[in-house]
Each structure stands twice: as structure tokens, then as C-alpha cells.
Write a structure and sequence with these properties.
alpha+beta, 16 strands, single chain, 400 residues, 24% helix, 7-stranded mixed beta sheet
């Protein structure tokens, strides 16, 4: 049975659109620290439905994005799942760097398709507070037709992968930083590391001011494709409510394919193999500063939203499984990336700083329980685990 109202469908708003009234809403990007800094507001709409506003210092744009969960979390399946956003942003970023590096090195690519698989784990017991989310190495297959010999092509693609700004979150071990506020007052963190500086202002109900602007702002940027074809995933799950089990030992697999359309936009098909669910199509394009037209969300905006969405899901899952009171919750998350090694012209591997997240809880539970909500949500978040784990992208090349 689905949990709560289908707020996303009932709102009548498109899933994704560009804000034309960002100044009225009050969201603005942080100052660029390394090349591109993004501020992401995320609020819970109804248990597992969420919306995010993402502001980028590099593009100057603010995107509204929406997320939901499928039957595996008793969700409405009205929008892509949180993990879909990171996979989408990641494969878009790889496509950015491959095409930019090809242009720099005068490599003519006649055909190009990327296929990516992200893997995560969830193990342990929620009642015992031993449940932990994990991240596994990424698999990337490149189908390509070009004139480079095998050795040169392998090196070319490896350089492009390392040039992605997301490389900074994958390589090394970045511990995320937090502040925690309960009912409008900051309380000390538990295990979670505190970020430097003051608590950011709580967005509160300013999300309600968001409206799509012109016709151009509300064009279809995301749409469902249908149920994902089944694929055998060792430790995978597909049954209704499976992600709410109190004891877990499962593997998640989110895939995607990315191709370039004739109009220059990237079309990405997200594939939800485990937990088995609906595939969604995404459009992505970099803003003019990176050689695009900015007609769809850029790679870093998708990545940042995905991390915020995933973290917020863990709050909803934890309080649902333990029947705790959490009437409302929001976050403000800052993410900082370098420019792309190829797309940004640095010639270096991508870098990133630790995520900085301000958490706002409205709850009648004690301060200790509020701290536990943060600690367990961080502990079970697949994408905070992604940042804390030294990961590599396994590259497979197929000539076409």
C-alpha cells in the first residue's frame, strides 16, 4: 500500500523545471570555491516524495527536481528514485569530458554510447542500529567508433573519466559535515562531524513560493519509460516493501545509458534493476559556460540533488521503521566541485570538497533521538557512503 498522498501528482507541476523566480524564493548558490559550488534545498513532501531546488554558481541557474520511491518502499513511483539522479549526473559528466577531450585532441568520434552500472549494499539490523549503506565500484561501458588505436583509446577514455568533477567524490575518503537543528534550535551533533561556521537559515515553507515560469521553463525534461527489464543481480530485491525490512543483506543496482541527440542534449535512460522498478528518461545539458545552452539540468545539479534525496530517504525510512515522530524535515546541502579536466580546460583530475549539510527536524522526540535520526540516516545513506569510499570506475570498451 502506498504511503501518504501522491503530492507530486496532485500538485500539477512538472517533475523538473527551471526557476525563474529564484530571488523571490530566496535560494542562491554559494560562492564558487573550486570551480562550481551548488546549494541544494530538499524537503519531504509525503514520506518518500521529495523536491529539491539546486542552485549552481557556475551556471547561474536554479532547477526544481522531484523524487519518489517505488513499491519496494511502498512509494507512488511518481518520479525517479534518489539513486537515479547520481547515476544520471555521473554518466552525463563522463559524456561531457569524453566529448570535450575529443574536441581538444581533434579526435573524431562517429558513434558514442555510454552504459553505466552503479552498485550499493545495505546490510545489518535497524532495531540493533547496525544497518549500514555501502558503495561498490562503478562499471562503465563505452561503445565508440573512432580512429584511435586500442592503447590510445584506452588512455584517452581513462583520462576523460578522471577529468570528471565527480572523480573528487569517488577517489579518497570524504567524511560529510553537518549541523543539526530541532524545532528551530541547533542542538549538538552526535557521531556526525560538524561543519564549520553557523547554521544556515532554514528554508521553511519557502518551497511553496516556487512556480514554473515561461513555456520554455516547463518543457518535458523527465518522463517514465516503463518497468525496467529484469536482470539477475546477486543479492538483489524486487518485492514490495523489501527496502523496509528490519534485517537486510541486499545489493542495489542502478544503471543508465547515455546518448547525444542531434540537438546537442544528452538523453539518459535510467535503469532500476535492484530494487526492481520503473525506468525514467532524463535530459541533461551544460550551461553556456560549458559550451551548452542550459536547456536541461547540468550534471552537477543532478549529482547534488541525488545525494540530498538519498540522505532524506534514510530519515523517512528510519522513522517509519521505528514508528518515530518526524512531522517535517528539510536540508540545505552545499557541494563543491572543481572544473572538469577537459570541459573546464584544467587538464587535471576532478576534485571535490566534503559535503556540508544543515539538517532541520520538526519532532516531539528527545534531542538524543534527533541526533540518532541524523547519525543513522548518514550511516545508511548510500551516497554519503559513496563519498566515504575510495572507488574506481571499471572501464570496458566496445568498438562499434
Amino acid at each position: 500500500m502506498a504511503l501518504g498522498p501522491n503530492t507530486l501528482a496532485d500538485s500539477g507541476l512538472p517533475l523538473f523545471f527551471e526557476l525563474m523566480d529564484a530571488a523571490d524564493v530566496g535560494i542562491e548558490a554559494p560562492e564558487a570555491r573550486m570551480g562550481d559550488s551548488l546549494r541544494t534545498w530538499v524537503r519531504s513532501l509525503s514520506v518518500f516524495q521529495k523536491e529539491a531546488l539546486v542552485a549552481s554558481s557556475r551556471t547561474g541557474k536554479v532547477w526544481r527536481l522531484a523524487s519518489d520511491e517505488g513499491p519496494y518502499l511502498d512509494g507512488h513511483d511518481a518520479a525517479p528514485c534518489p539513486l537515479a539522479f547520481l547515476t544520471t549526473g555521473m554518466i552525463a559528466s563522463y559524456m561531457n569530458e569524453i566529448t570535450a577531450l575529443a574536441k581538444q585532441q581533434n579526435v573524431k568520434i562517429r558513434k558514442l554510447k555510454l552504459t553505466q552500472d552503479n552498485y550499493y549494499t545495505m546490510t545489518g539490523s535497524m532495531p540493533k542500529r547496525t544497518m549500514v549503506g555501502g558503495a561498490l565500484p562503478v562499471e562503465l561501458q563505452v561503445e565508440i567508433d573512432c580512429d584511435l588505436d586500442d592503447a590510445s583509446l584506452t588512455q584517452f577514455l581513462m583520462n576523460a573519466v578522471h577529468a570528471s568533477p565527480l572523480n573528487g567524490l569517488m577517489r579518497g575518503r570524504l567524511e560529510s559535515l553537518f549541523t543539526l537543528s530541532k524545532n528551530g534550535i541547533e542542538i549538538p551533533n552526535g557521531k556526525a562531524l560538524r561543519t564549520d561556521g553557523p547554521v544556515y537559515p532554514d528554508p521553511g515553507n519557502r518551497f511553496a513560493l516556487v512556480q514554473p515560469g515561461s513555456e520554455a521553463a516547463i518543457k518535458t525534461l523527465c518522463w517514465p519509460e516503463g518497468i525496467t527489464p529484469k536482470k539477475q543481480v546477486q543479492g538483489g530485491t524486487e518485492t514490495a516493501g523489501s527496502s523496509l525490512a528490519t534485517e537486510q543483506n541486499r545489493t542495489l543496482n542502478i544503471g543508465a545509458t547515455c546518448t547525444l541527440r542531434e540537438d546537442g542534449m544528452k538523453e539518459i535512460l535510467q535503469l532500476q534493476y535492484s530494487p526492481h522498478g520503473t525506468s525514467f528518461n532524463f535530459l541533461s545539458e551544460e550551461a553556456p559556460v560549458n559550451g551548452g545552452l542550459g536547456r536541461a539540468p547540468d550534471a552537477n545539479s543532478y549529482i547534488s540533488a541525488g545525494i540530498g534525496f538519498c540522505f532524506m530517504t534514510q530519515f523517512g525510512r528510519f522513522v517509519k521503521m521505528l514508528n518515530l515522530d518526524l512531522s517535517d524535515y528539510r536540508i540545505v546541502q552545499d557541494s563543491h566541485f572543481s572544473l572538469g579536466g577537459a570541459s573546464g580546460g584544467t587538464g587535471k583530475a576532478g576534485r571535490a570538497d566534503p559535503l556540508e549539510t544543515h539538517v532541520y527536524l520538526e519532532t516531539s522526540e528527545s534531542d538524543d533521538v534527533a541526533r540518532e535520526m541524523l547519525d543513522i540516516s548518514e550511516q545508511t545513506c548510500f551516497l554519503h557512503a559513496f563519498c566515504k569510499t575510495d572507488l574506481k570506475t571499471k572501464l570496458k570498451i566496445q568498438r562499434v
